[in-house]
Design goal:
The chain is α/β, with parallel strands linked by helices. It folds into two domains: about 60 residues, no CATH class; about 180 residues, no CATH class. It has six helices and twelve strands. Helix 2 packs antiparallel against helix 3. The longest helix is centred in the last third of the chain and has 15 residues.
Length: about 250
Amino acid sequence: MMFSIKMRSSKGGPHEKGGRHISGIERIVNEDEVESEIINAYRRARLHERGDSDFINIKIEKVKESDIIYKNKLNIKQHHVESKEEGLALSSEILQSAGVSEKACEIAIQSILNLTESMHGAMLIDKDTGERLDERGMKGVRVTGISSADINDYRKALENNIDCGIHLEEALILASKVTSARGVTAELCWSDDPNYLIGYVAANDNYERIPIMKDKGNPIGGRVFLVDTDQFDEDYTLEDLIEYLEEQVVLIK
């Protein structure tokens, strides 16, 4: 029997009432791991570098085995850059090599740079035109229903990577689900943790890790999914893609 554990925390009240997002976490674990994961989630909410949460929501739900699908994790590629400018330029280069137009690359990068606060979810942007598709404003599309199929095997597979830690562990899981979705060409992301400068582009079965994507101390990050609208038809729509991202339970192996 498996359970989904989701935590989100904020300062100044719940997110829905204007509270500032502090942290979040999701795990899908066996029943005997639930208690320890609840403790880990609480500690993360209380000890996060973004601040001291005064609102913490922890949700526990049973997950049916029949509702789970399994996907492989992306291949990790490490890059080296000397500055934020080099990092952003490299992200555009990787996105374009995956089939994203130069215009859409510029819009995707600028859309994150223009944020005055971090979004709760992702922006969905047309990979050719750069048009925003989801019409959800600052809420965006929030990817849930994700975890590793076996956390110990997963962490062992990552242990030889540079700066392996919770950021890489969680982002790789999320990116692996996102890019497995029909219609998603690539993902662009960098963190809202003030002192975590690493970002990535996920595309073509690769997780391209870029060491500098923003200025140190900047508490704003975001993510964009570049979408191929030619993949949509009467049997598979934008709404179906969003449903997959938000509701389908996917374990990464």
